[in-house]
Amino acid sequence: MSTLLSFRDVWVEYGDRIIIEKLNLDIEEGAFVSVVGPSGAGKSSFLRLILGQEGPSRGVITLDDTPLKPECGPDRGVVFQRYSVFPHLSALRNTILGVECEKAPVLGRLFGSARRAAQEEATEMLTAVGLGHSLDLYPAQMSGGMQQRLAIAQALVKRPRILLLDEPFGALDPGIRADMHALIRNLWRKYSLTIVMVTHDIREAFTLGTRVLALDKRRHDPHAPHRFGATVVYDLPMRERAEASSEENENITIDVKRNN
Ligand SMILES: Nc1ncnc2c1ncn2[C@@H]1O[C@H](COP(=O)(O)OP(=O)(O)OP(=O)(O)O)[C@@H](O)[C@H]1O
């Protein structure tokens, strides 16, 4: 598989606070990368770099060998733990909005056949995430799991190549989480996505990822905790289990590689 994203000597600094230091990493097209690490290690900052919400203070990130611009593009979609859907819009309107923002960035609205096409795309995506019968429901009428399905549809309707997930299932009950795990793996395959998912749940990281990255500091200065930043301290390629679906929790095999 070819390299999609490449980080070369990437640093993220806020003033004299170093958050990420000297990050060197390649992410292959089609990978499902889980990112774990202690609170404050810089996992969300890492996602923001890929999303283009912020640029590195030093170093270069490339997408298809082209330097990534510090702006969000349609090739990258994101789902957060909460609050990414609009409460005053139905599921269908929430999802159509994704297409409208993409195709009519100035007016934010499509008309005529373009609007009908957007409606069809949104309906197809809502059906793919299991909300085909809930098009007219508002977020307040939906469970947490349904709202996250909607957030995923909203992100995927723009047909991104890269889907970024920031603790997407963290607020859900365990049973619902298992359903969401199956859903996200299916969508990953169906739409040939490259996924980068931040999670605090180690089991989730290993269950879903084809690769698990641990971000942490290699060096600590107790007198100046912000002097050193985090980088990839473990990079664990998971051998793909045979068409995992229902048996996802079994027989996890890892090749451990310690990054020095
Ligand atoms: N815009 C900013 N200005 C200054 N510091 C920031 C900014 N954004 C993030 N930070 C700091 O960067 C560090 C890393 O934050 P980040 O949210 O990336 O960590 P995280 O690993 O995702 O944490 P958590 O697991 O708790 O969500 C934190 O100490 C945070 O306070």
Automatic annotation (TrEMBL):
Pfam families: ABC_tran (PF00005). The keyword Signal does not apply. Residues 5-242 form the ABC transporter domain. PROSITE patterns: ABC_TRANSPORTER_1, ABC_TRANSPORTER_2. InterPro entries: AAA+_ATPase (IPR003593), ABC_SmlMolc_Importer (IPR050093), ABC_transporter-like_ATP-bd (IPR003439), ABC_transporter-like_CS (IPR017871), P-loop_NTPase (IPR027417). GO terms for molecular function: acyltransferase activity; ATP binding; ATP hydrolysis activity. This is Lauroyl acyltransferase. Keywords: Acyltransferase, ATP-binding, Nucleotide-binding, Transferase, Transport. It comes from the Bacteria.
